[in-house]
Amino acid sequence: MSIRCQVTGKKPGYGNQVSHSNHRTRRRWLPNVQRRRYWLPSENRWIRLRVSTKGMKTIEKRGIESVMAEMRARGERI
């Protein structure tokens, strides 16, 4: 499974690591993705999401029901 936030869609960023001698090698920056369980009251069940810390803040601010409705509108499977 890819390292991707299910809420915000964040995925790894790519670029160069530049050494002191200006030697460049490819590297990637991984998003801070965590597995979290959220209670979905409308369906009376727990759901598991792979969420970045920014996604967690979004869920705290807007509520899990609103976020789930938006994810389903995008066609994401839960």
Automatic annotation (TrEMBL):
One of its GO terms (cellular component) is ribosome. Residues 1-25 are annotated as: Disordered. Coiled coil: none annotated. GO terms for biological process: translation. One of its GO terms (molecular function) is structural constituent of ribosome. InterPro entries: Ribosomal_bL28 (IPR026569), Ribosomal_bL28/bL31-like_sf (IPR034704), Ribosomal_bL28_bact-type (IPR001383), Ribosomal_bL28_sf (IPR037147). Keywords: Ribonucleoprotein, Ribosomal protein. NCBIfam families: L28 (TIGR00009). Belongs to the bacterial ribosomal protein bL28 family. This is Large ribosomal subunit protein bL28. It comes from Saccharopolyspora spinosa.
